[in-house]
Every structure is written in C-alpha cells, then in structure tokens.
Amino acid sequence: MMPITLLTGSVAPLAGSPATSAIAKTPAASPLWLGTDGLQGDAQADRRVHGGPEKAVHHYPLDHYTAWRTDLGALPLLDAPGAFGENISDLGMTEDRVAVGDIFRLGGALIQVSQGRQPCWKLNHRFGVPDMARRVQGTGRTGWYYRVLQPGMVAPGDDLQLIDRLAPEWTLRRLWRAMYVDRLNRAELEGIAALDVLAEGWRRHARRRLDSGRVEDWRPRLEGRT
C-alpha cells in the first residue's frame, strides 16, 4: 500500500508561449470526486490531446525528481510534486514495476493503467528547457495514465492498493522501449497492437508502424511544430 499526494490544476497562461495549460498542479487539501473524465476541479486546456477517459488521471513518480535535479540542477519547480502535471504523486511505483492493465483501488474508486505518457512540447515551456519533452521521452521517466473503472471519492493520503494484473509482462518500461528505442521490432509491435488493455491510440501507432515500416514524426508533439 502506497499513500499518495493528490493534485489538481486550472487552465492558465503558459510561460513563454501564447498557449494556455493546466500543467501546473497543486496538492488537494480535501477529498475529491474521481469520475471517468478525471478529478473534480482538475482541468485540461486542450481536450483534443489531454484528458478524456483514457487519460483521466496522470501518475508521475516522485522517485524521478532526484534524477531530474541531477540532470537540470536545483530548479525550484522540482522542490515539490506537480512539476510534470501529475494528479498522483508517490514513492515506490515506477515504470519498470507498473504494467499496462494493472488495476488499483484508490479510496472509493477503481482505476486501471491505460498507457504511458507521451510528453509534449508544453513541458519545454514549463521547465524553461527547450528540449525537456524530448528528455522526458528519452529517459523513459514519463509517468503514465489511468482510466477509471469505478468512480468514487478519493482523498490525499489514500493508499493505492493493487487489485489485479492483467498483463504483468507488459511493463511500462517495456512499452516505452518498444515505442522509443527498438522502434520497428515487429514482434513487440504485434504484441502492442493486440494488447486489449492498452489505450487504442498506442495500439494504432503500433499497427501503423507494422503497415508502413516507418516511425511517426515526433517533432509536432515534442517541439510544437505544425
């Protein structure tokens, strides 16, 4: 059992950009309703690519903050959870231990790991580091998302209790490696395409690579290029 910090954020201007974002999250002080689209009081600026049932809750391990302080220096942004737009922060759960399809009880809700995070260019502005999104992707320190299987009340300090593992061999680290390192490994791509507990968007990427023999262009997502 792992007690968590629960975080939410509102849409606000994004520093150094004409865009807005709700990436800045702060700890909740009281219980919140967790529905199929996310936490009560949490917002997303661009619903085309953020939020929704397959990205209802974002989990980012506090474990990674130490490595980021080593990489980036003593940024004030890294003094407390919320730097990466996470809704859940804790110690002890990382991408090499968590698998797609894992089901957890959190307070009165039931949540399931749906996909890894694909970092976007807004992280570059959030941190003031031009290639921050690419660094997050390249290190595999990405965090992940949950879908909500059973809505309910959740509270700061609740424990994440593992209920079931439907595809324990498909850790988020393995998924990351297949998508971003060994990118055209057909056996891995075929496994991803057939992984029914994985969000459809990721399965679609795998099918496209299998069909085309090519990797999609990441620059629009990582750099904000149109």
Describe the structure using short key phrases:
alpha+beta; 14 strands; six-stranded antiparallel β-sheet; 23% strand; 7 helices; three-stranded antiparallel β-sheet; 226 residues
Summarize the structure in short.
With 226 residues, the protein is α+β, with helices and mostly antiparallel strands. 26% of the residues lie in helices and 23% in strands.
Structural account:
This protein has seven helices and 14 strands. The protein is α+β, with helices and mostly antiparallel strands. Strands 1-14-10-11-12-8 form a six-stranded antiparallel beta sheet. A three-stranded antiparallel beta sheet has the order 5-2-9, with no helix packed on it. It starts with a strand and ends with a helix.
Helix content: 25-40%
Question: Count of helices?
Answer: 7
Strand content bin: 15-25%
Helix/strand order = EEEEEEEEHEEEHHEEEHHHH
List the helices and strands and how they pair.
Layout: E1 2-3, E2 5-8, E3 12-13, E4 20-21, E5 26-27, E6 32-35, E7 38-39, E8 57-59, H1 64-72, E9 88-89, E10 103-106, E11 109-116, H2 122-127, H3 132-139, E12 144-150, E13 152-154, E14 159-164, H4 172-180, H5 186-193, H6 200-212, H7 219-223
